[in-house]
Amino acid sequence: MFDKILIANRGEIACRVIKTARKMGIKTVAVYSDADRHALHVEMADEAVHIGPPPANQSYIVIDKIMDAIRQTGAQAVHPGYGFLSENRKFAEALEAEGVVFVGPPASAIEAMGDKITSKKIAQEAGVSTVPGYMGLIESADEAVRISREIGYPVMIKASAGGGGKGMRIAWTDEEAREGFQSSKNEAASSFGDDRIFIEKFVTQPRHIEIQVLCDAHGNGLYLGERECSIQRRNQKVIEEAPSPFLDAATRRAMGEQAVALAKAVGYTSAGTVEFIVDGARNFYFLEMNTRLQVEHPVTELITGIDLVEQMIRVAGGEKLSLTQQGVKLNGWAMESRLYAEDPYRNFLPSIGRLTRYRPPAEEAESDRAVRNDTGVFEGGEISMYYDPMIAKLCTWAPTREAAIEEMRIALDAFEVEGIGHNLPFLSAVMDHPKFVAGDITTAFIAEEYPDGFDGVTLPRDALHRVAAAAAAMFRVAEIRRTRISGTMDNHERRVGSDWVVLVQGESFPVTIAADHDGSTVHFADGTRHRVSSDWTPGDALARLDIDGEPLVLKVGKVTGGYRIRTRGADLKVQVFTPRQAELAALMPEKLPPDTSKLLLCPMPGLIVKIDVEEGQEVQEGQALCTVEAMKMENILRAERKAIVTKINAGPGDSLAVDEVIMEFE
Known about the structure:
Elements: E1 4-7, H1 11-23, E2 27-33, H2 40-44, E3 47-52, H3 63-73, E4 77-79, H4 89-98, E5 101-102, H5 107-114, H6 116-125, E6 133-134, H7 141-151, E7 155-159, E8 168-171, H8 174-192, E9 197-201, E10 207-215, E11 221-233, E12 236-242, H9 249-265, E13 270-278, E14 284-290, H10 297-304, H11 308-316, E15 333-340, E16 342-343, E17 349-350, E18 353-354, E19 357-359, E20 364-365, E21 370-375, E22 382-383, E23 390-398, H12 401-413, E24 416-418, H13 424-432, H14 434-438, H15 445-449, H16 461-485, H17 492-495, E25 499-504, E26 507-516, E27 519-524, E28 529-534, E29 542-547, E30 550-559, E31 562-567, E32 570-577, H18 579-585, E33 599-601, E34 606-611, E35 618-619, E36 624-630, E37 633-638, E38 643-648, E39 655-656, E40 661-665
Parallel strand pairs: 1-2, 1-4, 2-3, 4-5
Antiparallel strand pairs: 6-9, 7-8, 7-9, 10-11, 10-13, 11-12, 12-15, 13-14, 15-23, 16-17, 18-22, 19-24, 20-21, 21-23, 25-26, 25-32, 26-27, 27-28, 28-29, 29-30, 30-31, 31-32, 33-40, 34-36, 34-39, 35-38, 36-37, 38-40
Helix pairs in contact: 4-5, 5-6, 7-8, 12-13
């Protein structure tokens, strides 16, 4: 077995590999760019080597720099993680020439299956059903339009060397095909150093289900069940689970056997994933093979008990698989939520900055529940504009899907993140969505259920009652503490009233609190009541309460007259007044936000790539105004209505902060 492994990656996956290597007694080497000098993976590794400037194409995907780091440290093997060089044939060949082991498949398998165009041709030759498309390379936007018309809209424009939703666009018209071709090509070149593009039919209403395979160099191969990855946004997975709520045993077996056969056909070794599109009748079609460890591998580990990174290292070391297909058992259900540095209230645009607070829920592993958080950041660390916006993968496990979802709801509510925009509220909203809870999902779920974007959650009345009861009980505790601090220690409970009015989500709830040593009973005017108990202390940012025997977790911030409370995807201003204060508050005018309708504001920190209009030009609704790049994604900003451009304040190459004015209109 190896003594030292270099991890040619960064962030959470580098930390993940380090954990298993440490468990196996193997020393680790981290590599880092200027932006990652103080990153968590650098702190965790036994050694670390600086490899260049922040942009990945000047550091993490420069093969020569990784090879220099290997020579400096004497690493015997390299784990590539995912992304970057993980599916780069030239990198695998360079390692082989140096006598260093690649913890992954042979270069021939990467070449055969890592390239989406080649893999589809091989699958077709092997008799595997594939999605209709054009397998040749596309040289120009005009050619992309012609091919898209021949295939029939809608089409998917994809980077041949792509992954993680990068270099991928859906086009429904000639204009979108032309625009999408250039954006995909640019993103592919920036992210992968390979700008080849192909086009395939976009299948509507599909499920995205993938099979985890594991093969050794001795002819053994097996599959470890499937993962449901249909909850996607912009072709990037957001929530995954294992197993799928849709597959039956026969389909699972058929997909698994076909995936293993395909892997063996190309001499595959290590862990890999065969992705399928599955229709409503459980017909499945080969999509692509990822010749690397998947982002969502933890859910497979949770339901099988198999450490995939350990198996990859052992296979790379020449060992035979100690597992058999008969020995693979799927136990319970696992959920994974990807925490992204993206602001859901700004159409999920990237957000960068310092993590002023980062407190994940505690990791736990019990007989009937588990919580796991794979992360590569820490409180006080900075989220950079140079890399993927994913900062953590929160996973839960339980014996049933329903229980795993409930564990995820609680864990999401307990996850504290401040300083950047993030998608925790959206993840919570999905966990409560009736269609998701029922398992009635497709890759169109987010587009169909949130067609106008995400603007928060409106809590149903029963949930609102629970929050109001909790806030009233918490406010009473805070008032008692305030009277003590002010010096009125004697009989302080008589100085804190029992009648209050809770204002939340546009509603007013008069309540009466009856307190005792074990908690409070909150009585509402409509006759309902809730029993509230908690050990929350005023000032704590997280409140764990018990409401009528059920858990409720609230993120709590102090505001005038009450709290900012976040729970289950809702962001609420909750005010608690005496009856007289409530009467007066109702007379106060509401402060209106400033009018920005005549301004184009930069929606996220980023780089201006292109300005599409000129001063004095009349623009129409939907017309492209400019392109902003952030976190390896190009974002085209469009006119919301007909207007005339009066002033342009930024140009190509300018770096802007969020809400900086790009242009003005009349």
